[in-house]
Amino acid sequence: MFGKNTVSALRQEDIKSRIESLKKQQVVNQLRATERKVKAHETAHKLAGGDLTGQVLYKYTKGPDGKLYVTGGEVSIKVKEGKNPEETIEIARRIKKAALAPSNPSIQDRVVASKASILEMKARIELSRYQNEFHQKGKYIDLFV
Question: What is the pTM of this model?
Answer without folding.
Answer: 0.77
